[in-house]
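Re: the pair you flagged

First of the two:
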Amino acid sequence: MDEEIEISMTDEIVESSTEPKIKEKGYLARDEYTSERFKLELNNLPKYFGFGDLKKKLKLLGVNFVKIKVPKAATHAYVNFRNEEDKEKGLKLLTGWTYRGNRIEVSVS
């Protein structure tokens, strides 16, 4: 009943991939359009504010944005623009802006 089992093992050579590793935010290097290239960060927003109210105030100021991203329970927001010109205009309009008693800090993100 003692049977011998022969196992043949083969050596395989596994070559490392020559593909470059994906860089963080690699989509920014592509030629495709993305509004992530034209983004401002608004800091020092009030602890409680409405997304709709912020959107309305930005439109009244004449800020030509594409979208606004507000993380949950945050006192900051990201404003995306269609192009560099709109982003620069937004930067000028929002610098020194006061929203609900808070002086908003604007930075390029």
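Second of the two:
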Amino acid sequence: MKPIPKPISYLFPSLRNIFFLVVFLAVLRQGNQMLNADGDLGHHLAMGRLILDSRIISHTDPFSFR
């Protein structure tokens, strides 16, 4: 049988809950910046698709206009 916790213990979060909340809020705050940090997400996705389709890692950039 588990001991019944004191009612005051419900008012204070545990250290695990505080850590989770801090990490969760940091990810929410930095989410867009982490996802698109270099501003070239489309290029990375297109290059990844090309690598998966051809099964070859390209040594040149097929998407540049040079």
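The chain has a mean pLDDT of 83.

-B.
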